[in-house]
Amino acid sequence: MVSSLDGIIAKKDNSISWFDTTDSYDKGVDGQDPEEFLKTIDCYVMGAKTYKHALELSKSYGWAYGDKPTIVLTTRNLPKDRPNIEFYSGDLNRLVNERLKPNYKNVWVAGGAILAKDLIRQKLADEIRVSILPIILGDGLLFFDNVGQEQTLHLKDTTAYKNGMIELCYEIKK
């Protein structure tokens, strides 16, 4: 998940202009090649709002998730314009344990906040990766708003980038 320093993952208007940063951090590393990183992902999972937003962004930027299987959690009737898209409306525990774990090694939850919170609450997520951009937005959709329970984490890795972004990777202790 990409977040502002104050934990906001989406502005109320869903704009992504705040993703661009002009900040500079001399001790940071160059960003990971996105193409190489995306090769490590076997399957994407996202909520309906994220999917609709991704469809809208794809009109200007192309489909960000390539040809990898993408499972969209929804009860709504949404447009399916790619053969690798699958809609799912059942139990999360069943999806993770019966469909995802047996078939995929690296599943990336691309969004949104409600889905991420549900996976954390039900102890179905293994790790949390959050990239914090050097900006305070002040208002919008919070990533960890009302998770509803304490969750112990273990810091696995951290990376500071030249553009001022910090990536944190936490293992979720079960």
Order of helices and strands: EEHEHEEHEHEEEE
Shape type = globular
CATH topology: Dihydrofolate Reductase, subunit A
CATH homologous superfamily grouping: Dihydrofolate Reductase, subunit A
Query: Count of DSSP E strands?
Result: 10
Question: In brief, what are we looking at here?
Answer:
The chain has helices at residues 34-39, 48-61, 92-103, 113-121, and strands at 2-4, 8-10, 43-47, 70-73, 85-88, 107-111, 127-133, 141-142, 153-160, 166-172. With 174 residues, the chain is of the alpha/beta class. Strands 1-7-10-9 form a four-stranded mixed β-sheet, with no helix packed on it.
Written overview of the protein:
The chain contains four helices and ten strands, in the order ββαβαββαβαββββ. The chain has about 170 residues and is an alpha/beta fold. The mean pLDDT is about 90. β9 and β10 (about 165-170) form a beta hairpin. The protein has one domain (about 25-170): Dihydrofolate Reductase, subunit A. The strands form three sheets. A four-stranded mixed β-sheet has the order 1-7-10-9, with no helix packed on it. Strands 5-4-3-6 form a four-stranded parallel β-sheet.
Q: What is the element layout, followed by pairings?
A:
Elements: E1 2-4, E2 8-10, H1 34-39, E3 43-47, H2 48-61, E4 70-73, E5 85-88, H3 92-103, E6 107-111, H4 113-121, E7 127-133, E8 141-142, E9 153-160, E10 166-172
List keywords for this structure.
174 residues, alpha/beta, Dihydrofolate Reductase, subunit A, four-stranded mixed β-sheet, four-stranded parallel β-sheet, 4 helices, 28% strand
